[in-house]
Write the structure tokens for this entry.
Amino acid sequence: MNIAIIGAGYVGLTTAAVLAEVGHTVCCVDQDVHKIEQLNNGNVPIYEPGLSELMEKNKSSLTFTTSLIEGATFPVIIICVGTPSLPDGNTDLRFLQSVIDQLAPHIHSHKTIITKSTVPPGTNEWIYETLIEKGVPPHLFHVVSNPEFLREGSAISDMLHADKIVVGLRRDDDQSLEVMKTMYAGISAPYIVTSLTGAEMIKYASNAFLAMKISFINEIARICDAFSVNVNDVAKGIGYDPRIGPHFLQAGLGYGGSCFPKDVRSLEQTARSKNIEPLLLQATQRVNESQIDVYLRKLHETVHDLPRQTIAVLGIAFKPNTDDTRESPAERFIRQLSNIGCTIRAYDPKATLSSDMPNVIQTSTVMEALNEADVLVIATDWPEFQQLDWEKVKQRMNGILVLDARNCLNRKKLEEAGLHYIGVGVG
Ligand code: UDX
């Protein structure tokens, strides 16, 4: 198949690489001239494990252009542009609208237009209506809603081994499912076929549920703490029940990234637009937003004169195996510590602090971050932090306190090295 992908971000590039891998010819379109230049020079502008290797392997099937008109010549067009949050929590559909405006005059042969960007319920119907209003004859296109469920850091494997393929179609569309099945022929997963809006809802409900699971375990962690119970035991205990499941029950600083915070906000606004008070969605966000305060308070209680201390923070990215700092709880924690006057020495294997903050420096090694540190905070659960030599860590630091804000360290090993351990919801 000949496929154009519009938007060369995480979703677009991963989709492009995987579709090339399963045998298609893919053209990536992005308005960012610098990004396309990089891609044409063989450089992948984001860090995603395995992505550059897969793109290199399939380079003969991949092209990159800034020309949307060139993209419009392809029979299958996948829209992967960003849909960020507006200040009020609604979704900013500016990029998507601009793509539809630019595509419309160039549809002269049949197109299957597939939306992968996360969009509020009703958006794909809007795409259909807009193209009709712009004079595109209905027999020349089909609109398909095909949300993605890939996670940064494991995007390629998530797409190649998808647990499902969600396909939203218009009622009268009896040919796009075959297009989708041909496109995903190399990927074996059950199909969920529903309406355009049904597919949009599946994506939002999925992200909101996972975010809710995280906030749930974080709330349970607060209660566990008060009773000196280990929340990890509780998560394990409840996770064996197949109705609950073991995933997304890792207590920590809360969820971040480019999807959960924005999608929960957006679904809240969607509900409100229909006069529905989304109580669980509100609670999910309130727990998430206040999770950092709980651990800041804990530091205040444990560390004498916290604002005058030097804090080493390991982790800046919103989660391991990514350089992404969007809505990163680690970065929010650093900002809060900086606001109260602490001196911060932050380190991350891939991510860079997204803005300058008073008294915050980023170091290039873990050991540099630990120099003179009174307190150590693990803010992102990178595997390499679990492997640290705790004897050496103790020698480097001024103090002995370690806040494991992701519950990812071996407490016993730290304590054997003479460090004082605080976790999340572990008493
Ligand atoms: C998420 C969804 O998982 C994915 O299906 C969707 O397509 C995009 O959004 P992603 O944002 O890449 O993917 O990250 P994910 O691994 O889901 O983690 C999101 C956040 O939740 C991270 O900040 C992570 O640290 C946090 N998290 C996750 C927890 O705090 N506890 C958990 O148990 C799991």
Summary: Residues 373 and 397 are 5 Å apart (CA to CA). The chain has a mean pLDDT of 96.
